[in-house]
Design a protein that fits this description.
Elements lengths: L1 H15 L4 H7 L4 E3 L6 E3 L2 E3 L1 E3 L1 H6 L3 E3 L4 E12 L3 E9 L5 H9 L5 E12 L2 E5 L2 E5 L2
Parallel strand pairs: 4-10
Antiparallel strand pairs: 1-5, 2-3, 6-7, 6-8, 8-9, 8-10
Length: 140
Amino acid sequence: MLRILLLFIVFLSSALHPPSMAQDAKQRVPLISLGRISRPEVKNGKMIPTPTTRQQILKNSLLLADVNNCRVTEYKFTILAPGKGFYGPIYVTGSELTDSIKNKIKQTDGPDVKLYIEEIKMNYRGTIMDASSIAVKYDQ
């Protein structure tokens, strides 16, 4: 009888207390980045593209999650180059920049070229989820 009472108390305690910070960290949505390039900052609700170089983008052309068991399955890609027009949107299946996207990046000189990777879908432990967008810019 005492054992049943103790089990009931443990059950009530876990039901009445919210999950701890450690449990929340295990259940958070993974963040996606373009290779090892830092994620963009968000200021006043607006995404500020991460400054980088064209070479770094071409070298880091795989969309990566910051946790295991997660992979990007599709995304939308766009280039905005001042004075040179708009390229996209290109809808891509997979997690890597395609050869045609890489060629377009190679052909598009700066300054202030912005790349947007949006509508990212990821497979996280068998569940398809949305991920936040990525923006980077390069001058050369």
